[in-house]
Amino acid sequence: MVGITYEDFLDLSYDPADSDLVCEFYVEPAADQDAESAASRVASESSNGTWAELQVDGGVTDLSATACGIEAATAGDREGYRVTVAYPDALFEGGNMPQILSCIAGNILGMKAVDRIRLLDCTWPEPLATSFAGPQFGTSVRSEIFDADDRPITATVPKPKVGLSTDQHAQIGYEAWTGGLDLLKDDENLTDQAFNPFEDRLTESLAQRDRAVEETGEPKSYLLNVTAGGTEMLERVDMAAEHGCEYVMVDVVTCGWAAVQQVRERCERHGLAIHAHRAMHAAFDRLPSHGVSMRVIAQIARLCGVDQIHTGTADLGKLANEDTVGINEWLTSDLYGLDDVLPMASGGLHPGLVPELVDRCGTNIGIQAGGGVHGHPDGTHEGAKALRAAVEAAAEGRSIEAAADDEPALATALDKWGTETPR
Ligand SMILES: O=C(O)[C@@](O)(COP(=O)(O)O)[C@H](O)[C@H](O)COP(=O)(O)O
Ligand SMILES: [Mg+2]
């Protein structure tokens, strides 16, 4: 038997093993702690230690995490430390994201020993990363579902976000698709309410979709929001497949990662792609000094198997977001052969912002505009034409002004919104 205390979880000479999960935290020690004592408590409480000295079998310490790096750091205008913690693979149950998060983002976020703590980044080892399904399609949706591997794919959410009838919703889809957009998207809070029931919305929207495909000769699809309680959500996934939809959309943060993993399994059976909306992410990532970063949320989403996820607008839109470009790079980088994820830019976008967005984020993205399409002075169809023209011009390296000369709908959008970020 050996006695273990907090101090046993600190070893600044430790070099993480290849099979370790390595996490980076921003930490502000409480007044009665220093950087080392706070770091050792982070490693201990997030693996298998606690506040009292324990007498344990030697083998138990093989599961103990090690705080192995401490350096001064800032978060916004605050000062603290960047603490590196290495977690042995055996601590985790492969393929079980809630268990992993209960370790690395669990009790430690509420410890009195730290005033602030934020999980900034993770380096996922191969055994643990490949214990997850990962995405089925990722960025290949651009060519596998659409003929769009030379440009960003486009999407629009009918606005107002809820309250439209099923007919109105489907009609807006028709106008947007025939205006040149690839995807109709449900809003994050539209599920199966009486004014626009789920199954009616599904069948009518796909009927309008089929009309639009007939007329345009282009593939079109629908990001159908299946978000609901456990089994109900899986039944909605089955319904989407039965009706010939290629996608489902899930509010991944509010549903929880266990539910996302279940949806991933079910979508494998049907060959459906998963669009991840991140509503509630800001509760975790808005403050730079506390919580869980969007970078880590995106990593979790990739491992759990989503094909597309909102990652922000590189600060061009109406919502605060962090590190869109860095997160997008991670989502499209190699990860032991797991598929990548298509980043979706959304939130306050309109055609005038597209050139700068593509400059910052490239073309291997999706672009969603709701207000930026339906707020067009001449309505949804013209708004869609304007967005399509702006996206094509940006992808081809043509100026938006020149594109506006060819597409009056775009000229109208530029007159209305210019290249301003909405507030
Ligand atoms: O409800 C909205 O605000 C949106 O539908 C955008 O509408 P607009 O196009 O009309 O702005 C999206 O939910 C946000 O983009 C989500 O934020 P994020 O993409 O940052 O996760
Ligand atoms: Mg929305």
TrEMBL record:
Mg(2+) binds at residues 185, 187-188. Residues 8-126 form the Ribulose bisphosphate carboxylase large subunit ferrodoxin-like N-terminal domain. InterPro entries: RuBisCO (IPR033966), RuBisCO_III (IPR017712), RuBisCO_lsu_C (IPR000685), RuBisCO_lsu_C_sf (IPR036376), RuBisCO_lsu_fd_N (IPR017443), RuBisCO_lsu_N_sf (IPR036422). Keywords: Carbon dioxide fixation, Lyase, Magnesium, Metal-binding, Oxidoreductase. Its cofactor is Mg(2+). GO terms for biological process: AMP catabolic process; carbon fixation. Binds 1 Mg(2+) ion per subunit. Its EC number is 4.1.1.39. Belongs to the RuBisCO large chain family. Type III subfamily. HAMAP family: RuBisCO_L_type3. Catalyzes the addition of molecular CO(2) and H(2)O to ribulose 1,5-bisphosphate (RuBP), generating two molecules of 3-phosphoglycerate (3-PGA). Functions in an archaeal AMP degradation pathway, together with AMP phosphorylase and R15P isomerase. Because the Archaea possessing a type III RuBisCO are all anaerobic, it is most likely that only the carboxylase activity of RuBisCO, and not the competitive oxygenase activity (by which RuBP reacts with O(2) to form one molecule of 3-phosphoglycerate and one molecule of 2-phosphoglycolate), is biologically relevant in these strains. Homodimer or homodecamer. In contrast to form I RuBisCO, the form III RuBisCO is composed solely of large subunits. This is Ribulose bisphosphate carboxylase. It comes from Halomicrobium mukohataei (strain ATCC 700874 / DSM 12286 / JCM 9738 / NCIMB 13541).
